[in-house]
Structure formats: C-alpha cells, structure tokens
C-alpha cells in the first residue's frame, strides 16, 4: 500500500511540473508577440511620418499655394490670408440675422430707453446723451442706438468687435465716475461677479442717470434680488419684454443724486 501511495504522489507532482512548464512557455510567447506588435506599430508610425505628403493635391494639378497641406497649426495660420477686423465686422453686419437683431433692439429702445433719456435730459433733446453698452457682444445694441439718433454711444466687451465695440473688462470699466447718462446691458445674467458688475455700472453713470438691464424673464422676487445689487440706485420699474424672439425682463434703475 505504501508504494502505491508514493507512486500516486509522483504522478501528481509530474503533472504539476508539466502544467507549470506550459504556463512559462505561454508567457514567453505572449511577451515575444507583444514585442513584435510594438516594433511593427513603431515602424509603421515612423514610415507615415517620413512619408507625409507636402500637398493634398495631385502632382499633375495646377499649382495653387492656398491648397498646401499644413504640417502644423503654425504653418496653417501663417498661410491664411489676413482679414482686417473691420472687414469681418462688415460681413457680419450685412447678414439678415444682424439686421433682425438690430431691429429688435431698436424697437425695445424706442419704447423703453428713449423716454428714460428724455426724462433725464436737461433739454427736450436726447441725441447728445452719453450711453454705455456693457458686455455689448458684437454691437447690436450700439448700432440700434446710433440708428435712433444717439451719437455718443460706447460699447465694451471682453473681446473687441471693431468698429462698434472696444475691449474692456465689464468688472473694471476704464471710465471716470459719472461719465455717462445711462448704462445698458443685456447680459447681466452672464456676469461672473454680479455685485462688481452692478457697482461698475453705477460708478460710471452720473447722479440722476439710469441703469437699464435686461435679464431672463423674472418674477418680483428675482427682480428684487437684482435691484439689491445696485446699492446707489432706486427701482424705476420693471416689465416683461421681447428681444429677438426671447421673453426677458427689463429693469430700470435711477442712480441717486447723492451717490458717492
């Protein structure tokens, strides 16, 4: 019985050794296969880099320098024709979308902003009023105000859009205190720091001037929260309006005469 048990143990030991040897062979094969795959991929990538064509156009085609295949983003930008900002602006302003937006602003200003300027003007003429459009985007509101006959209109935005909009930070306006009769913005909802935004609008408006805001359609509680940010102004009124097909709420404030 003893020799049978020893024989059985020897068989099991040999079986485990055989299985261990197979695992080692499989592991070696997989490592070699991985090495070959990496080598093939590296050679293929190197071949593609060395054989990158200078142009996407067949050799027999007429020579057109503007169709050269750029090897990098720097190469691409250096071959692009330079278009002046004023020319790009004229292209935008010639579109139907631009005309529709300017018309929408014009109707809004005719009904809400012009009466406000007229009541604040020392005479019956608002044409010489000084108006600041904060976060003016591409300048639709600036164009609308000038179309209505207001000559002194300044538009500012983080990114300039000449000739209507100049570059300036709405949270740090580069103007003297009380430099304008009215400040307008249609993007107060997008302000990163609403309190700072509101303080700068108030600062550049003269005592007795006005701040005119457009915000997303709001109820009384939301309007009250907006008004609280303007610490040196009082609410004149708010109403729901439509601008380029969007329902919004206009908020009109008058800066206090004794503001500091």
Automatic annotation (TrEMBL):
Q: Which InterPro entries match?
A: Methyltransf_11, SAM-dependent_MTases_sf
Entry keywords, A to Z:
Membrane, Transmembrane, Transmembrane helix
Q: Which domain of life is it from?
A: Eukaryota
Known CDD domains for this protein?
A: AdoMet_MTases
Methyltransferase type domain: which residues? 132-212
What Gene Ontology molecular-function terms does this entry list? S-adenosylmethionine-dependent methyltransferase activity
Membrane-spanning intervals of the chain? 33-50
* PANTHER family, per the entry: F21J9.14, S-ADENOSYL-L-METHIONINE-DEPENDENT METHYLTRANSFERASES SUPERFAMILY PROTEIN
Name of this protein? Methyltransferase type 11 domain-containing protein
Annotated source species = Glycine soja (Wild soybean)
Taxonomic path: Eukaryota, Viridiplantae, Streptophyta, Embryophyta, Tracheophyta
